[in-house]
Amino acid sequence: MGLGGSCRAASARRVALALCGCFALLSWQAGKAAEPAAGAEAEGIIFERQQIMTKLDQDADKLGKVVAGLLPADQLAPAARAVAEGARESVEAFQQHVPGGRSKPEVWSNNADFTAKMEKFATSAEAMAKAAEAGDKGTVLNLMVDALPCKECHDTYREKKRS
Questions:
Q1: Which of 35, 63, 137, 150 registers the highest number of CB atoms within 10 A of its CB?
Q2: Where in the sequence is the signal peptide annotated (predicted)?
């Protein structure tokens, strides 16, 4: 592998690490619903979202490793498809208005923007999965950077992790 290959691998690793952080945000945020859930029901909804986002984090990590050449190329399409499915599940899971986790009040006061960002995430992840299914690793890498703007949402909608 030449110098260009090692630079691309390092860049892909950075993208994979950024994706891991991106998906952590989503596990702590909520969408909207007619009425907030209460008690055990709310805890269950938050827990379910956290599980979806934990799985998304694992799938994104795997996708990053495939793109970086650390896992076999035949894992590209399944890993990207898993991210796309998780992204869509996350949109659906955040439709209920259940504050909790690390979501800021802005998730609710600016829900239209939050929801639009979540939809963009799901749409972009689907485009990435289609590129992966076509075997286009370069396009997948390019879409990973542009299609998953996680930090933007984290900065606006997620509380910082407490030590």
A1: 63
A2: 1-33
